[in-house]
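Hi C.,

You asked whether I'd gotten around to modeling the 242-residue construct. I have! Everything is below, sequence then structure, no commentary in between.
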Amino acid sequence: MSQALNKTGRRIAFESCEWGVDDPWTWIRAYTNAWRATGDHHDNWASTAGVIDQVANIAQYSGPGGWNYMDFLMTGGQGCSNGQAYSHCPGMTDNEYRTEFTMWVVAASPLIVATDVRNMTSIMKEVLLHKELLAIHQDTLGQAGGRVGTWNCSESGMCEIWARPLESGQKFAVLYNKGTANHSITLDFSIFGKGWVSASQRVNVRDLWAKQDVGTFTKAYTGEVVSHGVQALLLTLNPIMT
C-alpha cells in the first residue's frame, strides 16, 4: 500500500492500524506516517489512562515523518445514543478531558477528534481551541515527549513527570496525577540534565491551563495536581544572573 500511494505522486498521509501489538514503532516508520501505538481509546478514564501508559517510553521512535498515534480524542463526549455503556454522558469529567488533550500533546500524537465539532460545548472550545497547547503540539522541532520521571506521592506509582523539548530551547513539562486523590508533585529541573539549566539561572514557569505565569524558580517547582489531572507547564530559562 505504501508503494502504491507513493506512485500516485500526490502528498498523502498514510496511517497504519496496527494497534501496537507488534511494536510497530520499531519497524513500520519506513512505510507509514503514523501508526496506532495503542489499543482502542474509549470515552472513559480507565481507557484514557491505559492509552497514556502505552506511549510512556516510546517517544524516541516518533518524529517528523512518522508518529506514535494514540487513537481518537474523545473531548466533550461522543453523545448519548441508545446502547452506550457509559456511566454518564459525556464519559469523562472536564478535568479528565484536559488531561487527555495535554497528554496527546506532550506525546506528539496526531490530534483526530471523534466528537461532533458542529456542536461545540464549552469544554470542547476550551480544550480543542487552546492556542498555546496547539502551538506546542505543532512545534517545529517535532520531537515527541514521554515520561521522564516519577514522584513518590502517597499513591504508589500514580504521580509522573512527562516532558518534550521545543525548538525555542524551552521545555514543555507535565505533572500528571493518575491517582484517586490530589497530590503535590515536584519537578526537579536537574531531570533535564546539566546542559539545560545551571545553578546561576532561574526558570520561568507558565501554567498553560491557568493561562498565567506562576513565578521563577531555581532548582525545582512543586505544583498541586488534582486527581486524574495535570499541570501543563511551559518552562523558559531566564538570562544568567550575575
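If it helps when you're writing up: The chain has two domains: 2-137, 146-237.

Thanks,
B.
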